[in-house]
Design brief:
The complex is a heterodimer of chains A (270) and B (534). Chain A is of the alpha+beta class and 270 residues long. Chain A contains five helices and ten strands, in the order αααβββαβββββββα. The chains are: A alpha+beta (270), B mainly alpha (534).
């Protein structure tokens, strides 16, 4: 029986380690949520870590109690079963205590949500429209609009038995022909909608995704704090090429953004 | 089946006993129908499992190697429909048929002809559904959630999908009515409600969830049908309709549905853990109340499946609070199982191993569920592999592990033979290790940003996908052991005693193994009714 128990515990440990161990060896084995580059994304990263931490502590207690019981109260070890099966006090405690923990979680979650939904006082607005299977962007104030589709090299490599190794394609499936260029440190309001079926616009580093629903216009916002290129994908099943309509946001300095607007407008008028 | 030999003697009042195929087609016997439900569920488990193998094969490495994206979407859609409506729900109805009359001291179900009908609808439903693979446009590929407008792009398969869903729903409602009628009318004298085994309690509550939620689904899919063929615009924005309304209606069904899949599992764990711990279940009454509380909450949390759809702040807050509240009654259940183990006397037979794995792994699924319930963080988790990991922890290591556990537990009672313990242990260890290799890395994939329902992915997701696929293949092939165990047990083996397990309590264990064709033709002595905590 002891060996059985060891096997039992070893089974779980092994299963978990198989998944987790190589993470220490290879950088690509990414385990956790990204912190992101917006105030909101950092807020929810902290929230994610808080809840994960609470779950881990509860898990240690609960699973610890179970595994201790399985070790200590084995019949083969001579354990004799007690007959008690009720304790109102204990049951009230383990109803009230989780409730208190939940309230503790709900407070920061509510704050983050109120922050997310406050789209007022935006500096600029970008309207995002999902189509099967590309994105259309309209810069409302700057008068720019364009479609953005999967980059050609990814598109060639992703056909069935293309013979092209995806590892050789730069940013495979996460690259587009035209990037969404935005200025840093500006509050940008995103309006999402769709022209055919439902899509969802998601750049993980911005900290949220929002469905693009035909007939609806959804509002969200982001202030990108760091210059850089941030990649994302459609996150709502939208047909056969759902996996092939990526999003690339390039955050640049305000001057570079103004220059990009000029250049893009000029190119459009020619 | 081995009860065939017994039925002759025990059936003076029902003279008509056709043999062969007619026995199964025309049977009104709860054991025959239960057996058919369970075999049907097992076949569907393998059909749905084969689709999962195709999915994991295509996701083994980046790039498209085996199937086109459209077919991949059909695989994920059909895998879900087959597993939910074909495997898990019929399996629970099968257990209900076999066990409820024996547990409450009744001869059979209250409505035997309805029982026959509710089963025989299912093969037709799934012929319609699986037949769509051979139709122009292929099988449905818009996801099992059938969101419009995408689902309206389905080819010739579309009406077949809708009618298959209607048939499955009709079957479920009939089964639920039968179970409610049986439990409320056919209990033996002395079997009061608060003495019912928890499996019976969880099933009554499940049955009410079915009756309340399935018609809502039926309404939603009928509106899809008229949108497609009769010019209505319930869900078409261009005609003044509302595509988001479908999601609200669907998930008003869909959230109770997930409890329909898991509540009977709570009843199973509450039967098996006390048996092998040789100690009464801790907190019987609070288990009943917690199940009721979960069932009630299941009707007011639906929009947490669609937090990103664009709801007002007040809506998002309401559904976040109600969702995390479910952790309280669910926590009560897990704590009660832990307390049952405390100061008990435990042995580790295969049903106990699967039930213990159920408690631990279901709790992991509960933790990720709690995380998903926090709306602002769900804006990241939503529609990623984190969600896939979550619902497979609660459905595979939750519902399916519980179904397997229950099969091992009652198989000796049903067949009169003990199953092969060594083979069963192999089945347990291979399944438990591989299922974690399969689903645990999917948490990491989701957090790293991999969306669900994509046939191909960026190369940074390659490593964990390969690990997950390997786990998937091992898990899939391990289930062949399960069939071997069942087959061997049906065919023969060590003779099972009436009580089968040293710590077994409850009316079904007072019957011979295998039990007579009609379970209790005279009510059991009230003194033999011990109460549900045993």
């Amino acid at each position: 029986m002891i060996s059985k128990l060891r096997k039992y515990r070893a089974g779980y440990t092994l299963g978990w380690l198989l998944a987790a161990l190589p993470a220490t060896v290879l950088a690509d084995w990414k385990l956790n949520l990204m912190k992101g580059v917006t105030p909101f994304s950092r807020e929810i990263y902290d929230l994610h870590m808080l809840i994960l931490g609470i779950c881990t502590v509860i898990g240690i207690f609960v699973f610890g109690a179970i595994f201790y019981s399985l070790w200590a109260f084995r019949k083969s070890r001579g354990a004799v079963a007690a007959n008690w099966h009720e304790s109102t006090t204990v049951e009230i405690i383990w109803t009230i205590l989780p409730l208190a923990i939940l309230v503790g979680m709900a407070v920061p979650a509510t704050k983050a949500l109120i922050m997310m939904e406050d789209v007022a006082n935006a500096d600029m607005t970008i309207k995002v429209t999902g189509y099967q299977w590309r994105w259309h962007y309209e810069y409302i104030e700057d008068g720019i609009d364009f479609y953005s589709t999967l980059a050609e090299n990814s598109n060639e490599a992703r056909t069935l038995n293309s013979g092209i190794d995806p590892a050789t394609v730069e940013h495979y499936l996460l690259d587009v022909d035209k990037r969404v260029v935005v200025p840093v440190n500006k509050k940008i309001r995103f309006l999402t909608t769709a022209g055919d079926v439902i899509h969802a616009w998601w750049v993980p580093d911005l900290g949220w995704k929002r469905d693009a629903v035909p007939g609806f216009i959804n509002e969200s916002w982001a202030t990108v704090l760091e210059e850089g290129v941030y990649r994302g994908q459609c996150a709502e099943l939208c047909g056969k090429d759902h996996g092939f309509m990526p999003i690339v946001v390039e955050a640049v300095s305000e001057e570079a953004y103004v220059a990009w607007v000029e250049k893009t407008k000029k190119a459009a008028s020619e | 089946m081995s009860d065939a030999a017994a039925h002759g003697e025990h059936d003076e009042h029902h003279g008509y006993h056709p043999g062969g195929m007619k026995r199964w087609l025309f049977t009104t016997n709860h054991k025959d129908i239960g057996t058919m439900y369970l075999i049907f569920a097992l076949i569907m488990f393998f059909i749905g499992g084969a689709m999962a193998m195709v999915i994991r094969l295509e996701l083994f490495q980046p790039g498209l190697q085996f199937v086109e994206p459209q077919f991949f979407n059909s695989m994920t859609t059909m895998h879900a429909l087959v597993m939910i409506f074909g495997a898990v729900m019929p399996a629970w109805t099968g257990f209900a048929n076999w066990l409820i009359p024996m547990m409450i001291g009744a001869p059979d179900m209250a409505l035997p002809r309805l029982n026959n009908w509710s089963f025989w609808i299912l093969p037709f439903a799934f012929t319609l559904l699986l037949g769509t693979f051979f139709m122009p446009g292929g099988a449905p590929a818009g996801g099992w959630t059938m969101y419009p407008p995408l689902v309206l792009q389905t080819g010739d398969a579309f009406p077949f999908l809708i009618f298959a869903v209607h048939f499955m729903g009709a079957s479920s409602i009939a089964g639920a009515i039968n179970i409610i009628a049986t439990v409320f009318n056919m209990r033996a004298p002395g079997m009061t409600l608060m003495k019912l085994p928890l499996f019976v309690w969880t099933w009554i509550i499940t049955a009410f969830l079915l009756i309340a939620s399935i018609p809502v689904l039926a309404g939603a899919v009928t509106m899809l049908l008229t949108d497609k063929f009769f010019g209505t615009a319930f869900f078409a924005a261009s005609g003044g309709g509302d595509p988001v309304m479908f999601q609200h209606i669907f998930w008003f069904f869909g959230h109770p549905e997930v409890y329909i899949l898991i509540l009977p599992a709570f009843g199973i764990a509450s039967a098996i853990i006390p048996t092998f711990a040789r100690k009464p279940l801790f907190g019987y009454a609070s288990m009943v109340y917690a199940t009721g509380a979960i069932a009630f909450l299941s009707f007011i949390v639906w929009a947490h499946h669609m937090f990103t759809v664009g709801m007002p702040l007040a809506g998002e807050l309401f559904f976040m609070y109600t969702t995390v509240l479910i952790a309280v009654p669910t926590g009560v259940k897990v704590f009660n199982w832990c307390a049952t183990l405390w100061q008990s006397s435990i042995t580790f037979e295969v049903p106990m191993l699967f039930s213990l794995a159920f408690v631990i792994l279901f709790t992991i699924g509960g933790f990720s569920g709690l995380m998903l319930g926090i709306t602002p963080v769900d804006f990241q988790y939503h529609d990623t592999y984190f969600v896939v990991a979550h619902f497979h922890y609660v459905l595979v290591t939750g519902a399916i592990f519980s179904i397997i556990s229950a099969t091992y537990f009652w198989l000796p009672k049903w067949t009169g033979h003990m199953y092969d313990e060594t083979l069963g242990k192999w089945h347990f260890w291979l399944s438990t290790i591989s299922v974690n290799v399969l689903f645990f890395p999917q948490h990491f994939l989701g957090l790293a940003g991999m969306p669900r329902r994509i046939p191909d992915y960026a190369v940074q997701f390659a490593d964990f996908n390969m690990v997950s696929s390997i786990g998937g293949f091992v898990f899939g092939f391990s289930q062949i052991l399960f069939v071997m165990v069942i087959w061997k047990c049906v065919k023969g083996g060590e003779k099972a005693t009436d009580r089968v397990w040293e710590g077994a309590h409850g009316l079904e264990w007072t019957l011979p193994s295998p039990p007579p064709y009609h379970s209790f033709t005279t009510p059991p002595a009230p003194a033999s009714i011990e109460g549900g905590m045993r």
